[in-house]
Amino acid sequence: MIEIYNDLQSNVLKFKLSGLITAEDYENTLIPAIKEKLKKHRKIRILYHVTKEFKSYQLKAVIDDAKAGLMFFNAWEKIAVVSDVEWIINGVKAFSFIIPAKVKVFSNNEIGNARKWLYQNNI
């Protein structure tokens, strides 16, 4: 499941991932939320929190994740990924060089640092 959390800073979008992530989560939650933010902001900041309750992605969700990355390729200003899942951490680190934004990975016990980094104005 993907949950969206509103933020006081209007150009920030926070997602919380837990359990099984499905294609419907992307199509009905994540992608519409990004589109809505982009109506008001040219660039947005993302907090992508993979909780300890996270289980896995459905294959179609992985494909939708890649599509969303391409669809919104230039929309990102900063992305903070919070996770203790090794393959997610390694994947973000391996591919972050192609994303035209600052990307940083944090462990779940560093979520406060992730928020602080995300809100800093230096980009």
Automatic annotation (TrEMBL):
Membrane-spanning intervals of the chain: none
Among Pfam families, the record links this protein to: SpoIIAA-like
Q: Which InterPro entries does the record cross-reference, listed alphabetically?
A: SpoIIAA-like, SpoIIAA-like_sf, STAS_dom_sf
| Protein name per UniProt | UspA domain-containing protein
Q: Please report the organism this UniProt entry assigns to the protein.
A: Hippea maritima (strain ATCC 700847 / DSM 10411 / MH2)
